[in-house]
């Protein structure tokens, strides 16, 4: 199955009407010139031309063709549910399916400043196939809606997510089973799009949810039973969202005795997580920091060590992409330890490798318990 992420008007304001209307409101029109985007018939996939930096309209036209509909599922998030929809007909003009007079009053109120453009609106016919309460989802899946690539568009393919993670090596079930699709750019040059490894991992979860609903973990346990512990740990590490990595950093500083001062990214420039022990003696801080070196989680250079002790403050920046633009006096959390000789870097895969170590669980109780929770909810235990 191929998955797309959809947003139904700004902030999904019109998503609640999708079941009633049998489809999604889709914009894509020029209000100034009163022209709607051209509906494109793609009789073949061979000559498919696309603007890769903003592909939404072309994808809507191609993947609503009959030959693709059963292979595609559209994902939407609202405040309570993750839902999967199947396309039932070609994208077309809204007025071909509904009249302005028969629209729900609440719908018209939301679009009251845009009703004059009714004949320019577009419509994607869909039917709801499955929904699951978001409280049942692993956080890695639940937090996908915050990815900028997805939420800045209307109809974005999941298979393009997090290409930088393709540098990681996974099991053959992931490496050798990825969706491929050839498109033409505006220079008529063939470009092969290959599903990213991260997206392939996500597909395990989406397929299981579509198939089993709230019992999706049964299917995941069956799939991952053939994976080694190392392969499962690789998946766990790859699935962490930016918000989860920041959570990991916050729990880590709490486990080494610091009080979380700022526990969310964007709170400070250069820093995602800030912890303080300004109310404690320097000797206590030095003792607390020794926990990090005990498990070889980090090699602190002397400059950074002295700064943390003298300022009684620890600052951590969490980076999704490895090994870029690192400052010499900050602590970092990075995805993988291929460059394990780097100073001031805590590698996620090294933290995960300590799971199951009773001593580690005692020294880092909050972090260890959180990691076990993630592994359990992802069906990797």
SSE topology sketch:
Layout: E1 2-6, H1 18-21, E2 23-26, E3 29-30, E4 35-36, H2 56-63, H3 66-69, E5 72-77, E6 81-87, E7 92-93, H4 105-110, E8 122-133, H5 139-142, H6 148-151, E9 155-157, H7 172-175, E10 180-184, E11 190-194, H8 197-212, H9 216-224, H10 229-239, H11 242-255, E12 259-262, E13 273-276, H12 282-294, H13 302-311, E14 313-318, E15 331-334, E16 345-347, H14 348-353, H15 358-363, H16 365-377
Parallel strand pairs: 1-5, 14-15, 15-16
Antiparallel strand pairs: 1-9, 2-8, 3-4, 5-6, 6-8, 7-8, 10-11, 12-13, 13-14
Helix pairs in contact: 8-9, 11-16, 12-13
Instruction: Classify the secondary structure makeup into a structural class.
Output: alpha+beta
Helical coverage, percent range: 25-40%
Secondary structure tally, helices? 16
Number of strands: 16
The tally of domains stands at: 2
Q: Report the average pLDDT across residues.
A: 88
Description of the structure:
This protein has 381 residues and is of the alpha+beta class. It has 2 domains: 2-226, no CATH class; 238-377, no CATH class. The protein has helices at residues 18-21, 56-63, 66-69, 105-110, 139-142, 148-151, 172-175, 197-212, 216-224, 229-239, 242-255, 282-294, 302-311, 348-353, 358-363, 365-377, and strands at residues 2-6, 23-26, 29-30, 35-36, 72-77, 81-87, 92-93, 122-133, 155-157, 180-184, 190-194, 259-262, 273-276, 313-318, 331-334, 345-347. Strands 1, 2, 5, 6, 7, 8 and 9 form a 7-stranded mixed sheet that branches. Strands 12-13-14-15-16 form a 5-stranded mixed sheet. It has a two-stranded antiparallel ribbon with strand order 3-4. Helix 12 packs across helix 13 (302-311). The longest helix has 16 residues, at 197-212. It is elongated. The model has no long low-confidence stretch (mean pLDDT 88).
């Amino acid at each position: 199955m191929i998955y797309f992420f959809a947003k139904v008007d700004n902030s999904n304001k019109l998503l609640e009407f999708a079941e009633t209307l049998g489809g999604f409101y889709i914009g894509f029109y020029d209000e100034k010139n009163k022209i709607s985007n051209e509906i494109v018939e793609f009789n073949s996939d061979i000559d498919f031309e696309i603007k890769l930096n903003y592909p939404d309209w072309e994808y809507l036209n191609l993947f609503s063709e009959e030959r693709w509909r059963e292979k595609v599922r559209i994902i939407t998030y609202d405040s309570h549910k993750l839902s999967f929809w199947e396309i039932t007909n070609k994208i077309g003009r809204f007025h071909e399916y509904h009249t302005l007079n028969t629209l729900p009053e609440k719908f018209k109120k939301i679009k009251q400043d845009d009703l004059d453009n009714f004949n320019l609106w577009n419509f994607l016919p869909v039917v709801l196939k499955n929904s699951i309460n978001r409280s049942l989802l692993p956080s890695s899946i639940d937090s996908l809606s915050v990815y900028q690539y997805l939420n800045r568009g209307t109809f974005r393919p999941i298979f393009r997510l997090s290409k930088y993670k393709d540098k990681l090596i996974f099991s053959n079930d992931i490496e050798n089973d990825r969706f491929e699709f050839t498109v033409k750019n505006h220079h008529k040059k063939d470009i092969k799009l290959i599903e990213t490894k991260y997206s392939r991992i996500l597909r395990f979860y989406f397929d299981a949810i579509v198939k089993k609903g709230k019992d999706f973990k049964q299917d995941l346990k069956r799939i991952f039973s053939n994976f080694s512990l190392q392969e499962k740990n690789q998946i766990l590490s790859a699935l962490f969202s930016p918000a989860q990595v920041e959570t990991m950093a916050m729990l880590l500083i709490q486990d080494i005795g610091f009080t979380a001062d700022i526990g969310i990214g964007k709170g400070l420039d250069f820093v995602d997580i800030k912890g303080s022990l300004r109310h404690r003696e320097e000797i206590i801080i030095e003792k607390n920091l020794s926990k990090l070196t005990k498990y070889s989680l980090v090699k602190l250079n002397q400059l950074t060590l002295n700064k943390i002790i003298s300022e009684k403050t620890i600052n951590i920046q969490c980076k999704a992409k490895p090994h870029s633009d690192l400052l010499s006096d900050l602590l970092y959390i990075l995805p993988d330890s291929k460059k394990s000789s780097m100073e001031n870097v805590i590698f996620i895969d090294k933290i995960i490798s300590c799971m199951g170590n009773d001593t580690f669980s005692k020294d880092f109780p909050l972090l260890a318990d959180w990691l076990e929770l993630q592994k359990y909810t992802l069906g990797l235990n």
